[in-house]
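Batch manifest, entry 17 of 40.
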Amino acid sequence: MSQLSVKHLLGIKDLNEQDIQLIFKTADNFKDVINRPIKKVPSLRDITIANLFFENSTRTKLSFELAEKRLSADTISFSASGSSISKGETLIDTVNNILAMKVDMIVMRHPNPGAGVFLSKHINSIIINAGDGAHEHPTQALLDAFSIREKYGDVAGKKVVIVGDILHSRVALSNIFCLQKLGAEVMVCGPTTLMPRYISSLGVKVEHDLVKALNWCEVANMLRIQLERQDIKYFPSLREYSMLYGLDKKLLDSLNKPITIMHPGPINRGVEITSDVADSEHSIILNQVENGVAIRMAVLYLLAGRADK
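Output type: structure tokens
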């Protein structure tokens, strides 16, 4: 199979295992490209991509922009804060105005879950979801699983625990879908107040004791506490959260085996993990950043191949 089964990348739940493996195989090739002296390929030379970020983003936005430049695409970037959105313009009006400039693909982050799905039904352009509310963040899950595959050779059979704010995290949901499709065992760990009610229906193990979770897993993905999405207090204080669910070097060294540490960023150092863990040999956080560019290049390239030329 050399083509994705989907026209858009709206969520991991729409992909099958063959799609994910094809993205990984393509990312392997692009990883070779971005480690060459000349890091550009002309693959998307005639494609115009609009980056629409209706929500703040640093890493994802930079990663997509770099991936697009590496593929020689023409790009325009839009951020909602200084736009007509603040004057009351609707999402469809904004996007239609951008499409009138003859844009082939749209990379969109939006605070509302399902915004990408909504848009895909109303406009004739390829949509890539760069995060929609607390719903999905498919390219983050792909780069996380790709990083596990790079470290261990395969994702199947690996035990992965996702620790922290599961309730507000689009990274957690996309990771659960992606890891399960690739045959990994998934556990979530965090305070009861930060677990969604539906979590057990997703077929994951649930653990509230961090030490037990870390002794079970081979890989721990430590999520950031999403304070900006929390409209009420879900735990007494960051200090208390850190004491119960933060990972420091002492805890890491006390485990009965070495484990791999991941983090989707940005890190609240001293809250979910300490600096000496983030910067330790157990951490593959910087590998995740590098792999993010290769994965996003692969997704853009494969979806552009489906564009109606």
